[in-house]
Write the structure tokens for this entry.
Amino acid sequence: MNNGSISFLPKIERKEGIVLFKAFLFFFFVLASWYALRPVRNELAVQGGIYNLPWLLMGVMAAMLVINPIYSWLISRIDKNKIVLYIYSFFIFNLIIFLSAWSLAGDEGKIWTGRAFYIWANVYSFFVVSIFWVTMINFFNHTDSKRFFGIISAGGSLGAFFGSTIARYFSTEICGNTSISDLGPMSLIVFSIFSLSFAIYFSRSFNSTHVESNKSHEIGGSSLEAMKNTLREPAIRNLGIYVILFTMLMTVSWMVSLGIVEEWSKDPCERTGFFARIEQIVTPLTLLMQLFLASYILRRIGTLAVLSLYGLLFAAAFMAYSFYPTITTVMVVVISLRIFEYGFNKPTRESIYTKLTEQDRYKSTVFIDTFLARSGDVVGGWFVRGLVGTGVAVLSVTWAALPFALLISYMGFQVNKAVKDD
């Protein structure tokens, strides 16, 4: 392809447009289901205390460690074209359980339900999104992924905006109760159930045989395949390290920002509204990036620039927190990091995943995006807690994180080299 002729929007045939629109709606409902619950999870994190987060994050990582071999075992034995149906139905069942728990539990029960929900919500968010992308990377080839993944991501951004708007609307109801764990979250759970059901409906158009025509629809392999490949395959290993680093740095940034938010307001309802407002600002800006820039950058510049730029962005964010620890800085930093992650970096990583083997596309990518991503959260959480425990001020932690910001830029180069991306 002649780079000089590349336009901002890729050329789309009519038949491709129909499939692309279905993928767009598929991701819309996946993220709508999650983003309606996300502000509630964030508020529960503040209520639980930011210094207790490392323990909750360890709970999330432990859950991921248990669930991943089960997922790999299941994926080896079921029809790969029914993965979305089985996994999403399981999470809908989980949502019904939480809905029942909130309805029946007393005050003490609600506390433990809230803690369980925080851990489960992180598992939910990573698995429903990972399964969506597993479907996409097994349907589209590498060339098409560079053309379409930015646009498909835009569908998710619209869904995120819709879900966070619903959450903000219900925050008024939440503020009328004695606890954030009362009526509001129950209503949001019902919304998430319906959204995930619509996602299942649109997933039926995406059979993995579009890319590879196999006699068997089963993946095969062992339950530990993903873990083994992460250790022995350079491309998977480098991708894993990259994801650990970026989630670690995201967690450090998040914990610093939560401290600033906690100082800014003691009102749970105001904080929940602030979190929801960030989601509403992030989404339209990310949408513009995904629709008009992501595809162009991936096709014109390639993946190396995107993967390596993360370090510079994190470095700028940490210095901003250090010099200007205000609520405005929190908003600017969080919005910038989120736009880059969902507008550019996530589509870039998913396009790289299309170049992996079928086993790795179904298993290793989920292991990376769930367990290793959560491991990065744990490392970041204990990084902050450990330094604060030695007497280092929370805001000074940002300076200690700067070397890791440089390291992630280096790992971006290594990832690009390992997969030999063009």
Observations:
- The chain has a mean pLDDT of 82.
- Residues 2 and 300 are 9 Å apart (CA to CA).
